[in-house]
Amino acid sequence: MLKILVTDDIAKTGVEVLESLPDAVVEVRTGLSESELLEAIEDADALVVRSQTTVTQEVIRAARQLKVIGRAGVGVDNIDLESATKRGVLVINAPDGNTIAAAEHTFAMMISLARHIPAANRDLLGGKWNRKRWVGVELRGKTLAILGMGRIGTEVAKRAKVFGMNVVGFDPFLTEERATSLGIVKATLDDAVAQADFITVHTPLTKETHHMIDSARLRTVKPGVRIVNCARGGIIDEMALCEALAQERVAGAAFDVFESEPLREDHPLRQFDNVILTPHLGASTVEAQENVAIQVAEQIVHVLKDEPFEHAVNLPSLSAKQKENLSPYLALAEKLGLFAAQLAQGAPSGIRVTYTGDASAPDGGYLTRTVLKGLLGFQYSDDINYVNALRFAEESGLRVQEVRETRGRVYTNEISLSIETENGSHHLSGTLYSESGPRIVELDGYPIDMPSEGVLLFTRHKDQPGMIGRIGTFLGDAQVNIAGMQVGRRESGGEAIMLLAVDRSVSTDVIQQIEQVDGISMVRAIEL
């Protein structure tokens, strides 16, 4: 008899899917204390949660026979993925179920903002009749900047086109071909922000997107712009936005998500009549709740029946032999993808992954999925997992090619990655040292030897005396300590590269200072 434990409220239709599994008992027990959860999970084969239950290392350790954890939604930050993976417990989510709900809520916020609907409603309920005060603007003919052209951003774009809006899209993986197919214009982040009448964000919250719209960018917006955030709190600097609202550079804002939730009572966003606030309702529709519940329930049933499944956010099930063969290369593959994401500039159009030696053993494309998870996950975070990485690459117009060779040119076992973007191409290779772990051993044709971990600084420059010292001076002045260095060149006085391992993140200001040095052609800060 299988036991499925449901500890958060999910739609009844999802529970019914779980109950359809023969020889399964479904226990719905919401509001459990930590001690009650530890007891209830002991004999459970599957656990279903939303955002209320926190699945900690202790919870996973207490589960003697747990096979799968299902999150009825997208984000899995309330689940200890590392502990689940170490215990061989699958974690699956429902990434598609609330796409339409989130897109429609975004559009509802945008229309309400344009026509002052909440404020006019409050006014009228207060006994007033102020037709002249609440004159709005039309969407038709306005420019909408969509920052993040994933599933939800794409759906927003479709609706905006129907309303006669001019849509510009920013996304690191948006190609000209895909933009044309969507009927939108591809733009850089700065250009999109500067020309927009409306701005809406649809990116995950990562180190790169945190405060993506900050005080500096808000000084570049078109006067009278309106800003919508139904994605993640923290993408827009709330304090900087309040300042821009107070100065009337921004005509209004609509937020469904916040840096700290629930929104505190004295938050300055509450003081503005031209700000619309909703309590994280983007996925709160009957249909969306049913969709995510059914989606995650169906996948749990597939897992428990040992059938093919989708939407795993950690390691899918592998045979013991596959695990033994692949495990040394998984970290290397993901690090190479993550490195490439930060090295390359512009939307990638193609990627070729070459495996040699033991790494070339047939694996059903698993290592390539891992490379793509690193590459795409840098920008899209939780939206990318081992199962959907290939599909996401295909939808983004990214051509993926695998090459398998029995022998490497230099190293017996090697993974090499070549990536093409609209701004050029890059090549990097990695291998495993028995005692040192994953290493980067080639970068754009230059041999190097550096651990694939930590914070790295890459430069391409003219091979001339004093270059290394000048870069080191900038880092020293910024209190950034150098832990290791690799240099490569083909000929004296020609082009050279340098890869530095440093003890902490390198600020944008320092990067810009290094870029101004005569003879420097490229600088990249890379965190693995």
From TrEMBL:
Recorded metabolic or biological pathway in which this protein acts:
Amino-acid biosynthesis; L-serine biosynthesis; L-serine from 3-phospho-D-glycerate: step 1/3
Pfam families cross-referenced by the UniProt entry: 2-Hacid_dh (PF00389), 2-Hacid_dh_C (PF02826), ACT (PF01842), PGDH_inter (PF19304)
EC number(s) reported in the record: 1.1.1.95
Q: Which UniProt keywords apply?
A: Amino-acid biosynthesis, NAD, Oxidoreductase, Serine biosynthesis
Top-level EC class, please? oxidoreductase
List the Gene Ontology MF annotations in alphabetical order: phosphoglycerate dehydrogenase activity
**Domain (ACT): residue spans on this chain:** 456-528
User: What chemistry does it catalyse, as a reaction equation?
Assistant: (2R)-3-phosphoglycerate + NAD(+) = 3-phosphooxypyruvate + NADH + H(+); (R)-2-hydroxyglutarate + NAD(+) = 2-oxoglutarate + NADH + H(+)
Q: Which residues form a coiled coil?
A: none
Q: Does the keyword ATP-binding apply?
A: no
The family database entries (CDD domains) matched by this protein are listed as:
ACT_3PGDH-xct, PGDH_4
Record family assignment: Belongs to the D-isomer specific 2-hydroxyacid dehydrogenase family.
State the function annotated in the UniProt record. Catalyzes the reversible oxidation of 3-phospho-D-glycerate to 3-phosphonooxypyruvate, the first step of the phosphorylated L-serine biosynthesis pathway. Also catalyzes the reversible oxidation of 2-hydroxyglutarate to 2-oxoglutarate.
Report what the protein is called.
D-3-phosphoglycerate dehydrogenase
* Organism whose genome encodes this protein: Alicyclobacillus fastidiosus
Lineage summary:
Bacteria, Bacillati, Bacillota, Bacilli, Bacillales
Gene that this polypeptide is encoded by: serA
